[in-house]
Amino acid sequence: MSSSPTIQNAHWAKARPVLSVLIPFLRDDPATLLTMLDREAAGLEGAAEIVVLDDGTGDSRLTERLSAQIDDLTLPIRLITLGSNQGRSRGRNRLADAARGSSLLFLDSDMRPDSERFLQSWAALVRNDAPPVAFGGFSLLQASDEPRFSVHRAMATRGECVGVTERAKAPEKYVYTSNLLVRRDVFEAEAFDSAFTGWGWEDVEWAMRVSRRWPVIHIDNPATHMGLDTVDQLAGKYEQSAGNFARVVARHPDIVSSYPSYRVARALKRIPILRQVRPLIKRLALAGWAPTEARAFSLRLYRAALYAEAV
Question: Tens of pLDDT along 275-285?
């Protein structure tokens, strides 16, 4: 893989971390997250490092600001800047290559720790148990409550901001790269599939593969997902994700067949005029006058109607 510009602060060279925090971003500014994580530096006692990957933003002023910030922070931090976008899977694989810890914590740039001991809790878990895979969960505690995000908030609260007990019932299903710990040997054996493009499912497919070989545990160490989307933005992501969903179905039919999204897609596939009906479903999801729950239901139905072509 070709080299890319990297900078690291003065603390990087001497650090001997057990935990590498890996943060990819594209056009987002991870400065706030870096500041929040750095507040734990004293309590970590050298246990953690951070590797940040700019996946082709192409903003030299942002790079300069981050470089200056990283120089002033206490945690050992490295910034890698890619000249072009490599995508979600390749970017995270690139981060893992640059990490030095025995465990890798994938943390999205739009996440905010919900605890002042967020990294310390992860580092303690690595030192005491070193689990193959662990997911900390996420919340919307610090996220925007603007009305334009109400549908996404409703959907995420129901389907993603799930407690430890519920997540443990289907451990591979509730795995997202937003707050995910992976032991290095596990990731070296099972990296993210770079054939996934666009948005969605690459993390769940990875978890399905891994769960066949190692246990996936869930803990209560959540972070807030700040990046809520409008209905139009979410619909666009679902439209991108249909091909990825098809890849998951082809590879893991025994697992994905138990998912509600798969079962609904199978049922919708039997409707002869589904392609004609699908735009109407999307229109109701976009209707600002409709109740939030009705719009959320319509958006889930629209997603299933898209996936019907893949099942």
Answer: 999 999 999 99
- Which tokens hold the place of 273? 């005029």
Q: Looking at residues 248-268, what average pLDDT do you find?
A: 91
91: tokens are 């970017």
Name the residue with tokens 């925007």. 144
The stretches of 99-173 forming alpha helices (DSSP H) are: 118-128, 150-159, 164-169
User: How far is 292 from 92, CA to CA, in rounded Å?
Assistant: 34
Identify the bridge partners of residue 124 per DSSP, sorted by sequence position.
none
What residues contact residue 302 under an 8 Å CB cut-off, 6+ apart? 235, 238, 278, 281, 282, 285
Contact between 101 and 48 (Cβ < 8 Å): yes
Distance CA 21, CA 288 (A): 39
pLDDT grade for 310, boundaries at 50, 70 and 90: confident
Question: What is the rounded CA–CA span in Å between residue 86 and residue 197?
Answer: 10
Single-letter amino acid, residue 94? R
The predicted pLDDT at position 34 comes to 97
Q: Which amino acid is at 100?
A: R
Structural element, H or E, at residue 94? helix 88-98
The amino acid that residue 192 corresponds to is F
Q: Which long-range contacts (CB under 8 A, 24 or more apart) does 89-92 make?
A: 89/192, 89/193, 89/194, 89/195, 89/196, 89/202, 90/192, 90/194, 91/24, 91/53, 91/55, 92/22, 92/24, 92/177, 92/192
pLDDT at residue 200, as a whole number: 80
CB 67 within 8 A of CB 79: yes
What are the residues whose beta carbons fall under 8 Å from the beta carbon of 92, sequence distance 6 or more? 22, 24, 106, 177, 192
The Cα angle at residue 135 between residues 262 and 257, in degrees rounded to 5 = 15
Q: Is the dihedral of CA 56, 59, 61, 66 positive or negative?
A: negative
Structure-block tokens of residue 84: 């072009």
pLDDT surpassing 90 at residue 267: yes
